[in-house]
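User: Predict the structure for this protein chain, please.
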Amino acid sequence: LPLFRHCPGLDEVVASRGGWRGFFGLARRLRRERPDIALVLHGNEPQATPLAYLSGARWIVKLPNAANPFRFLLANREPPVAWPELGHGLNQRLRTAELVGADVAGARMALPVSTATDGIVDEFLAGAGIAGRRLIGFQCGASAASRMWPAANFAELGRRLLATHADAAVVLTGSPDERALLEAVARDIGERCVPAGDLAIAALPALLGRLAVLVSGDTGTMHLAVATGTPTVCLFAVSDPATSGPAYDHELHIVIHRPCPDLAIGTKTDDARCIARIAI
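Assistant: Here is the predicted structure, written as structure tokens:
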């Protein structure tokens, strides 16, 4: 929620815990808003479409709709549209908005940075002793090992970059739950490497905006970097960059894709063999 607190296009953000936990309480909460239209932009079924229906929305719109077991509840039940017809995930969201009359031509992601979060990042960099340096970001963690480049590779890359760029420092982004991983990588890299896992998530866009480049697997942090205009090096194995990589500003982003023939696209497993094949 803190990530979206300063987005001017949002009047209110109501949190969902996902799954069935808190489902009916959330439905009652949304029903009090008396919505006319519900756009389902993320396909968390079997909860998403029923939740929109129980909110009381007169029109429910979602793409893709072809394999949705609750397609009969949708205002756009015809014609059936499947994932392959939509292409990139961002296009799926924009096509959904277009169905209700939104002008999506040239649409880009935007994540405003507030003065407060800018100040938090200033304090963090100064406290870490790396203010004024060229900052290189590593997003070491991911939602599954199959999307995580090995920690040893990040460490070796960090040592090489710092050895050849005396003005640089490495910042390791991640969540508090990834603290042990970030601290281990930071120890392996040595001086001028700082873990930022304890930095408030609201300050992450401000931090990403300071980076010269972010090296990351297919993660939320990677997508935030694209939204803030930060150049990236994106490492893909079990996911497809054509559908979940950078959607625009391709001149700013380098995508390295080593497809995994043994695992289906989108698989999240503990099998890191494929992404480990990406050499330094």
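The radius of gyration is 20 Å.
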